[in-house]
Amino acid sequence: MTDAARLDERGASIAPRDPPMPSTKPAPGSLSYRDRFRLWRNGMIGDPGFRRLSRRLPGLRRIANRRANGLFAITAGFANAQILLACVELDLFARLAPAPLGVAEIARQVALTPEATERLLRAAEGLDLVCTTGDGRWTLADHGAVVAASPGIAAMVRHHAMVYRDLADPVALLRDPPAETATSRFWSYVGGEPGAPDAAAYSELMRVSQDMVIAEVLDAYSMAGHARLIDIGGGDGAFIAAAGERWKDLELDLFDLPAVANRARDRLGRGILGPRLTIHGGSFFDDPIPGEPDCYALIRVLYDHDDEAALRILTNIRRAMDPGDTLIIGEPMAGDTPGGKLVAAYFTFYLLAMRSGRCRTPADIFALLRAAGFIRMRSHATTMPVVASLVSAQI
Length: 395
Ligand SMILES: C[S@@+](CC[C@H](N)C(=O)[O-])C[C@H]1O[C@@H](n2cnc3c(N)ncnc32)[C@H](O)[C@@H]1O
Fold this sequence. Notes:
Elements: H1 33-46, H2 48-56, H3 58-75, H4 77-89, H5 92-96, H6 103-110, H7 114-126, E1 130-132, E2 138-140, H8 142-149, H9 151-166, H10 170-175, H11 182-186, H12 196-208, H13 211-220, E3 228-232, H14 238-246, E4 251-256, H15 258-268, E5 277-281, E6 295-299, H16 307-320, E7 326-331, H17 338-354, H18 362-371, E8 375-380, E9 389-394
Parallel strand pairs: 3-4, 3-6, 4-5, 6-7
Antiparallel strand pairs: 1-2, 7-9, 8-9
The structure holds S-adenosylmethionine.
S-adenosylmethionine binds at residues 189, 203, 206, 210, 213, 233-235, 239, 256-257, 260, 283-285, 299-301, 304.
């Protein structure tokens, strides 16, 4: 008998039963106190009565407000990113950097109507990108001043237009990822040797976006005790050049795919580093790591690669190292800090669009290093984990 046709003993029909729901409550014994607290807390957060109460009590109200703003920022993320993209495409920050401008002048420069310009400025004001002066003109606010001073951020924002197209249907991407995406084509080296034009496109983006990463890594790890540094997957050479400028006695090597190494030679070959710098073309998977360095750097390389490929790179580097040599790995890493959490979310999905790689915690990297035969692994504090974290290891 179906539920709809069920009758009670007196022959009256009774309401159909709800279909059995899978129990969401795990056996209490299998959960830690922390996890049980989390479940209790989730229940409270979802409870309308508790939400009403939290709006009335000042302490709870502050927390609730912060949480609500955070959730709204996530929900509105795409609109916010598009506001920033519009500002970058119109060069708004560079235009406002020298002096405040009125709406009419901005409108003339960016070739929009005054109404459209005002709309963009108001939206950008909400994101702390621009603000008004006392006389009603517009100038840079904190975020805008940072973007104006960092060409790397503008370059990242521009290339996001491509990444976001790949992420337009996130469920489809998770469920049935295509072999190739626009993002994977852009980072063509991940699937093999890129041609020169591809290398030019991604190397340029890497170079302009590297400033902040370089500062974090070089501030967190001193090369003073080393005689020779090799930057493996060093791209256009911004990191090796910065290290060479900071430690004047350091001998320098850069190792990258031949097409990229050629570009680095064009850029740095005749520079002030002169004979201190040697540039090598080759693959970090199979070719012997050249030179006789005592410090090996992998900056923003490992996260591009799945575990198997990352282990191959580390094993190849380990083969070249002598006892006492050091490998440093600098890249955005997932973690419990606010920056580490942002990194985890962003890169996990970015690398999904790229069809390769993994955003790792320092502990994940230690596990790979151990598997490759490294010992003495260390985490070095950086000031902004959202930009880069740093670990080192020896053999
Ligand atoms: C994400 S970029 C990082 C570049 C630079 N370290 C930085 O932080 O700007 C990765 C670099 O690894 C290089 N690369 C990729 N596959 C390689 C391989 N098989 N052998 C050597 N270098 C490789 C790329 O050409 C690129 O320069």
